[in-house]
Amino acid sequence: MAKNRKNQAAAIRFGPVLKVVLLCSLIGGSAVGYVWQKNEIYRLGQQIRQRETKLAQLQGDNKRFSDQISILHSPVMLDQRAKELNLGLAPATPMQVVRLTEMPVAPEKSSRQFAQRPVTELTP
To answer: Is residue 52 situated within a structural domain?
Structure first.
C-alpha cells in the first residue's frame, strides 16, 4: 500500500531542508573565510611594502648621516670650524708637549706559590 505524503510526519519532511541549509551555510562560510584570508594577505602585503620602503629610507638616512659624521670628524673640518668660531686654538708648541717614557715591565715570577712547611728536627 502506498502511503500518502500528506500523512507523513513533519520531521521527515524537515530533514532534507535541514541538510540543504547546513550544506549552503558550510559553502557560504567557506567562501567568506576564503575572501577574509585573501583580504588579510593583501593587507599584510601592503604593510610589508610600507615597512620595506621605510627601511630603505632609514638606511639611506643612516648612510647620509654616517658620511656627514665622518666629514665633520676630519681634522681639516675641525680646524676650519675652530677658525670660524674664533676659539683661538693652535697646534701645541714643542715646549707645551710633555713626553713620558714608559719603563719596560719586568718578567713576572712563577704565579704558583706553594706553602712552605716548617722545618722540624727529627729526634731519634
So the answer is: yes
CA distance 85 to 76: 14
- Rounded CA separation 57/54 (Å): 5
Structurally, how many domains does the chain consist of? 1
| Parts of the chain with a pLDDT under 50 | 1
d(CA 4, CA 47): 64
Residue 106 included in any domain: no
In which domain, by residue range, is 36 found? 9-87
Cell of 99: 713626553
Residue 61 resides in a domain: yes
Q: How many CB atoms lie within 10 A of CB 123?
A: 4
CA distances from 27 to 16, 30, 38, 40 (A): 17, 5, 17, 20
* Under 8 Å between Cβ of 71 and 77: yes
Q: Which pLDDT score, from 0 to 100, does residue 35 have?
A: 97
The verdict on residue 27 lying in a domain is: yes
Interior/surface letters 79-93, b for 16+ CB within 10 angstroms, e for the rest: eeeeeeeeeeeeeee
